[in-house]
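subagent[fold] <- orchestrator: predict structure for attached chain, return tokens only, no commentary.
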Amino acid sequence: MATHQSTFHSFLQHVSHLTAAAAEPQEVLAKIVASLDEHLGHARASIRLHIHSKSVAMEGPGIQKANFVFSRPIAVRGREYGQLSVETHTPVGSPRDWMLTLDTLSQQLALYAERLELAENLRRAQAEISEIQASLQKRKALARASGIVARLKGTTLEAAERWIAAEAARRGRETQSFAEQLILHERLTRQFTGARHGKAAVAA
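subagent[fold] -> orchestrator:
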């Protein structure tokens, strides 16, 4: 009995290492299915996970005359991620040990799926933040450049913005890049003008 419990414990530890590794879900599930057969003896597992719009599935070879069949949803905190099914004709240890082990495996897979989903949510949120920041930077540059052009041309901000967009397109440039160039040119012009006035004041 102690040997069987040690086998179950070793299997679950191995699963913990697999789900913690930075590997593709398909590879992780394949190794779990293979490990279940290796540790627990002639067991066929079927694991299916659904994360966002992606589905990942792995299934071991078929078994004839299965004496033990286990099936559980892979779920955590009210969120269902898939299904775990296991069958074997030569179970190691008692059915109770199998049930406890596979219940734990189901929980491990659910936590793994949840972590993958949270990581994907974080990636999407970061991408959205980057897009918003880029958009704000573009609007900021365009607004500042429009103010410069409006002042120099004696026109409205709206007309200046249209001119910048049209001029950037004519030159084959991105609007933001052209606007930033205008801002830099205006800054350098001020610095040069200020330096020249400073030298004139010292000379006087």
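orchestrator: received. Logging for downstream: The first strand starts at residue 43 and ends at 51. The helical segments are 2-20, 25-40, 95-153, 157-170, 175-203.
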